[in-house]
Amino acid sequence: MPVIDGTELTCQLGGRVVFAHLQLQIPRGGFVGVFGPNGAGKTSLLRALLGLIPLQGGTLQILEGDAREARTQIGYVSQSEPKEAEGRLSVAAFVGAAWRGERWGFNWHLTALHQAVRRALERVNAAHLASRPLQSLSGGQRQRVRIAQALVNPARILLLDEPLNNLDPQSQQQVLQLAKTLTRQENMTVLMTAHDINPLLPFMDHVLYLANGKGRMGTVNDLLTTPMLSELYGTPVTVSEHDGMLSIRVGNGFIPEISHHCHDHGAQP
C-alpha cells in the first residue's frame, strides 16, 4: 500500500487552480523529488499534505488511514529561515522547541526531552553542535539541524521544501545523503522539492513533475521526455541533449531549473 495515496486531488488558491485531478501514490521508504516551474504548486502540494491549506477535491489517505490523524507522523522543513530570535537559541533548544512530549512530571519531561533531542541530532550527524548558537552554523549545518527538529517527534514521512537552496555543492550532497540514509535505514518516506534536478539524480527513486495544473510521477527516463512534458504543459515541448546536458524548451524559452546530466539517469549512490 502507498504511504501517501491521493486520487483526483485538486487545490485552488485565490481562485487559481494550482493542480487538479492529481494522482499520487508514494511508496513507503521512497525518495521522491518534486519538480516543476515556479508557481506549479510544489510548495502547495506539501502544505496540502500537511493540512495547512485545503484540498477542494479528491480523496487522500496517509499511512493507510485518515490523513488528519496521520499528519502527526509527518516531519516538515519549510523554505522559511528561522526567525532572528530562534537564531540566538542553542541548537539543542531549537530542536527541543518542537517536541510534543507528554508532561508526566517535570523531571520525567526534562529527561525525555533531552533524550529526544539527542537522538534527533545523532540521526543527522549533528550531536556535536548541540551547544552552538543556531546562528553560528554554516548553511549546511543549519539545514541538518532543521531536519533534526522535524524528526524530534516520531515521524514516518519527511517533507523538505527546497532544502538545497543557497547551499554549496558539498552541503547539498550531505543533505541528500542524509535523506537517502533515512529512507534506507529507517524506511522513512521523503518528498523533496527542488529547482535543479541534477543534484538529486543519484539519490531519488521517483520524480513527481508538476506543470500547468497537472502532475505526473515516474522515473526520470519516464517523465523527462518530449511527449510526456508536452502533455503536461499542454503545448509543444522539446527535450534535447547538448554537451551532456538535457535542456527542456517550452515554446521559445528554456526551463533551466530542471536541466541535468543525461548520462547520470541510472546512477545510484
TrEMBL record:
It holds the Pfam family ABC_tran. The keyword tRNA-binding does not apply. InterPro entries: AAA+_ATPase (IPR003593), ABC_transporter-like_ATP-bd (IPR003439), ABC_transporter-like_CS (IPR017871), Metal_Ion_Import_ABC (IPR050153), P-loop_NTPase (IPR027417). The keyword Cell cycle does not apply. GO terms for molecular function: ATP binding; ATP hydrolysis activity. PANTHER family: METAL TRANSPORT SYSTEM ATP-BINDING PROTEIN TM_0124-RELATED. Belongs to the ABC transporter superfamily. This is Metal ABC transporter ATP-binding protein.
